[in-house]
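Q: Convert this sequence to structure tokens.
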Amino acid sequence: MDKCAKVWTTPGVSFMSFYIADPAHLGGGRLDPRLKLLYSISPAPRTQELSPVKERMREKKRVRILNRFLVHRDRTVQMDDLLIPGEDRTIPVRIYKPSLLSPCPILIYLHGGGWVVGDVNQSDPVCRRLAKQGECIVISIDYRLAPENKFPAALEDSLFVLDWVFKNGVKMGGDPARLGIAGGSAGGTLATVACLSAFQQGYPPITFQILFNPVTNLAKMDTDSHRKYGGGGFGITTQALRRRCEQYLEAEDQRYDPRVSPLLTEDLRGLPPALILTAEFDPLRDEAEEYAAKLEDTGIKVCCVRYLGVTHGFFNFGGFLPQADAALCEAAHFIQHASSSSS
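A:
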């Protein structure tokens, strides 16, 4: 396995609740110069000026450029695209397999994009890295997008694939008894909500969850990090999140549904151990860290790591940002630790 720095374990202690990570040695309060350069070269257009179709076209073009020039993509992992048949639809997935003996742990991954944009190509570099360094099979889900398919379509797709993996994981060389779920941004929301829904519906236990910059409270976007960083200049904005809300949900009061805003869940018991990775300059930072604290208060083993100098979605820039490399290494160690603890 690649050499990675572990920041979530200390001698004699399996889990700690909160860390500050500064792999770029910025000291806090400073945006990484690499991101400043990236934003100056390619400023994000206002989402309200684009239709969902045009947004997706723009996002695919952005991903192609990033994957070609900036982001490291591990080519040693085997990759296959598959269509999982359902009663009324098929769900595309992309499966990544490391060069290891079976059976391996299995990780389901859910991409970000505010439930409106994004696909398995967007998360391809992250999934490749997690498969190799985490020594696990990764299954990336191309779930249905809003506004054509509003809530809870994406969650339904996630649960359908989860059920399929429990039934078919062994055939792929995986071990369903060591199955975890991860996601970035909106995908992080889907990941933790899928864990809770699966528990409530009597699925076999999910071993662990990894949440990169998750959205945890669409009902109330007034945290300190929203006020400081949600006005622009740091990638995602509070205004853009409100628009995503309108596109994703059928009605405004659905913002209070715990499947949309997991921070509002009254009883979090039954959720697996969690690794939550946040960014210093992310409007969603405070609500993600509050969710980590609520999990810990419930008795869930949780580790929350805040990465300094970076913005929302930083983990997608492996090979370009040292913070992304460190976060992906952190996640890989978490997969190995959680998987070995359950075996």
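Confidence is low (pLDDT under 50) at residues 1-16.
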